[in-house]
Specification:
InterPro entries: ArsR-like_HTH, WH-like_DNA-bd_sf, WH_DNA-bd_dom, WH_DNA-bd_sf. It comes from Desmospora profundinema. It is a single chain. By secondary structure, the protein is of the alpha+beta class. It has a single domain, classed as Winged helix-like DNA-binding domain superfamily/Winged helix DNA-binding domain (Arc Repressor Mutant, subunit A, Orthogonal Bundle). The chain contains seven helices and three strands. α3 packs across α6. The longest helix is centred in the last third of the chain and has 24 residues. It is elongated, with a radius of gyration of 18 Å.
Length: 117
């Protein structure tokens, strides 16, 4: 399979930029609070909530909503083992694809030799 075809086959749940940002941040910690993730990613509350719901539906994260001192809502998010594996695999695949493209010369602005014939 050509590396360009591999790019089109990436897991779209993980590859979407906001979700990749969320998963990458969560892979670096045990858990994170909603407001911390919002600040870290720069997403609006609604946008972050939407992406978190998709990731939770996909089994890549777990969300816990509870109250602190009985009245302050707090939402914490943690990456699941499946989510950690998915984001690690995604970054490895991107690096591999990038290396294949670079070796073909496309990264340097030169088309592969087969295109010159």
């Amino acid at each position: 399979m050509l590396p360009y075809q591999e790019l089109a086959q990436l897991n779209k749940l993980v590859h979407e930029p906001a979700r990749l940002s969320i998963l990458t941040a969560l892979s670096a910690c045990t858990m994170a609070e909603f407001l911390f993730l919002q600040e870290l990613t720069g997403l609006t509350k609604g946008n972050l909530s939407s992406h978190l719901a998709k990731l939770e539906d996909g089994g890549l994260i777990a969300i816990d909503k509870h109250f602190v001192r009985r009245k302050i809502p707090q939402t914490t998010i943690r990456i699941t083992a499946e989510g950690r594996a998915a984001v690690d695999n995604h970054w490895k695949r991107l690096a591999s694809i990038h290396e294949k493209i670079r070796k073909q010369g496309a990264h340097n602005g030169h088309p592969p030799a087969s295109f010159l014939e």
